Amino acid sequence: MTPVQAAAFWIGVNALFLIYVSYRVGRARIGTRTNLGDGGGNDIMVKAIRTQGNYIEYAPAALLGLFLLAELGLGAIWIHLLGALFFFARVSHLLGLGMDVWSKGRFIGTLLTMVTLLLTALLLIWKAFS
Q1: What is the residue-level pLDDT of the chain in tens, covering all 130 positions?
Q2: CB 65 within 8 A of CB 120
Q3: Nearest to 92 by CA among 113, 121, 77
Q4: Per residue, what are the HEC states of the chain?
């Protein structure tokens, strides 16, 4: 698998994840009969919206960075490591914040998202000058 193919794989996996977290918002809207907003602070709506919103905030930088690193020649194994780390981070966040099934999930997801972004940023800067 080439680096670009590895990036394409992780971008595709993340697109499916976005569909899932968006579905959860739609399902919560139907379940709470909330057309716009969070239903006045309805816990189910707020968690679904925040899980999706947090993902949307970080995914573009992480996934664009992954693609650029692949284009700049970073090895496929590194692309897979960064892609897997970011995906694990976002699933962890969902399990912690969105589903309340892992008490440390939100913290671990946020921490690993920041680690992924930091590594991606440093590698992009290094590749820009090498």
Answers
A1: 999 999 999 999 999 999 999 999 999 999 999 989 888 888 999 999 999 999 999 999 999 999 999 999 999 999 999 999 999 999 999 999 999 999 999 999 999 999 999 999 999 999 999 9
A2: yes
A3: 113
A4: CCHHHHHHHHHHHHHHHHHHHHHHHHHHHHHHCCCCCCCCCCHHHHHHHHHHHHHHHHHHHHHHHHHHHHHCCCCHHHHHHHHHHHHHHHHHHHHHHHCCCCCCHHHHHHHHHHHHHHHHHHHHHHHHCC
Q: What is the pLDDT of residue 48?
A: 95
Within 10 Å of residue 11's Cβ, how many Cβ atoms? Answer: 17
Q: Tell me the CATH class for 3-128.
A: mainly alpha
What's the pTM value of the predicted model, to 2 decimals? 0.95
Residues 50 and 22: their CA atoms lie apart, in Å, by: 11
CA dist., res. 56 & res. 83, Å (int): 16
Domain residue ranges in the chain: 3-128
Structure tokens at 61: 């930088």
